[in-house]
Amino acid sequence: MIPAGSGVPGDNSEELARVLNRDCHCISIDSDALRRELERDAENRDLYRSIIESRPHLFSASAVFISRPDVERMAAIIRAVESVVALPGYRETVLGWAPAIARVDHGPRAVFLGYDFHLGPESPQLIEINTNAGGALLNTVLARAQRACCDQVRQLATGPLDLKLLEQVFFDMFLAEWKLQRGDSRLATVAIVDDNPPQQYLYPEFVLFRQLFARHGLNCVIADPKELVYRNGALWHQGLRIDLVYNRLTDFSLEQPAHELLRAAYVDGAVVLTPHPRAHALYADKRNLAVFTDASRLSAWGVTEAVQRILGAGIPHTTLIEPNHRDDLWTDRRRLFFKPVSGYGSKAAYRGDKLTKRAWSEIVSGKYVAQETVPPSERRLRVGGEEINLKLDMRNYVYDGSVQLLSARLYRGQTTNFRTPGGGFAPVFLPDRSCEPGA
Questions:
Q1: Beta bridge partners of residue 119, listed in sequence order
Q2: Quick one: 396 exposed, middle or buried, by C-beta within 10 A (0-12, 13-18, 19+)?
Q3: What is the Cα–Cα distance from 99 to 277, expressed in whole angstroms?
Q4: How are beta strands 244-247 and 272-274 bridged, if at all?
Q5: What is the C-alpha to C-alpha distance for residues 348 and 367, in angstroms, rounded to an integer?
Q6: For residue range 142-166, what is the model confidence (pLDDT) as tens digits?
Q7: Which helix (H) or strand (E) holds 214?
Q8: What is the model's pTM?
Q9: Tens digit of each residue's pLDDT (9 = 90 or more) over 410-437
Q10: N or C: which end of the chain has fewer CB atoms below 10 A?
C-alpha cells in the first residue's frame, strides 16, 4: 500500500506506476503457492527448497509496476523491429557480418526471443535483444503465485495471454518449430542442451521444461553437448535418438570444439535446433542495433516514416566502434555504454563513466558497439529493515513477433544479476487507473 496524499490523479496510470515503484513495499509473492507450482510434478519434489537454498535471489518477493501505455509502447517497438528484420536489405546487411553458419535456414523461427527494455522517462527504450532468453517458464510459475499486494493493483501485466494457457502456448511454440522443419512427422524426443547443465543458474527451469514436455507425451533429456553422438544421419543421447534440441548454449555460432557434433547435425538438418545461429545473427548481434537507428539505411529499404519514428524514439542511438571515430567516442564516453557485439548477460560490457584506459584498449581491439546510456528506472524496496533502490529492466518474451509474457529483473550494480538481496525475477503488475492512492 502506498501512503495517501501522494498527489496522483486516479486516471494517470504512468505516474501511479512510478509512485508504486517508489512507495509500495508490500510482499506480493505467496510462498506456499510458489512451492505448489514448482512441485506439482512428483519428480520435482524439493525443487522449491533447492532454489531457496542455492539460488536465494532468483525470485524477488515484490512486484514491479508498469502502466498500460508503456506495455503498448514496448509492443509497438517490437512490431517495428520485426518489420525491419523481415526486409531483404536488412538480412543481407546483418548476415554479411555474421558467421557463415547464420546463412543456414531450415525454417524454424527460434523460441523465446528476449526484448529487454529500460523504462526511460519519456518512453521504454530497447537496450538489446537476446535469442536464448531464459526465465519464461520460471516467470510463468512466479506470476501464478502472486496476490495483489496493493488496493491500487488489479491485474498482472503478463502480456496478452492468460497465465493458465501459457504452458500450452510454450509447448505449441516448440511444436510449431518442429513442423516448420519436419512438417507433419511425429515429434518424439527433445533434448535441453547446455554446458554442464546442473551448474547453470537457471537449471531449475530445465527441470520444469522436462516435465512440461513429459506431460505432453514426449521423451525429454537434459544433456551436456559432450554427451551427444552424431551418427547415421541422426543425433543421439545414450542410445536415444534426439528429434529436437532446445538450445540453451551461449556459444551462439556453435564454434567451440565441444559443440562440433551438434553443429554438424544442425547444418545437415539432422536435428531441429531452436534457437539457432541464424536467429542470433538476425536479432541479437549488437551491431544490429546500429542498423535499427540508421535513418539513411532504413529509408533506402523503404521503411515508412512512422516505423522510423518508433525506432528512433524507442532504441538508444547505437554506433559501431570503428577506427575513424574512436577518439570522438572516448571523448563522449561518459554518456555511452559499450557492449561486445556477440555478448550476453552483460559480460564484458562497460559503462562509459566507469571506463579505464585498460578497458578502452580491450574495446577498441575487439568488436564492440557504443550505445547511448539509458539509466534504468528503479524500484524501492524494504530489505532487512532498510529501504534500498533496485534498478530494473523489463523483458518481453516474444515468438514470431508476438509478445507472450512480460517479466522484470531487479538488481544492484552495473548490470542485471541474481546476487542482490531483494532482487531477481519479479512479476509485473498494472495499476488500476480508477483507484486513488491510499484507497
A1: 124
A2: buried
A3: 8
A4: parallel
A5: 11
A6: 999 987 666 666 667 777 778 889 9
A7: helix 203-215
A8: 0.91
A9: 998 877 788 899 999 999 988 865 443 3
A10: C
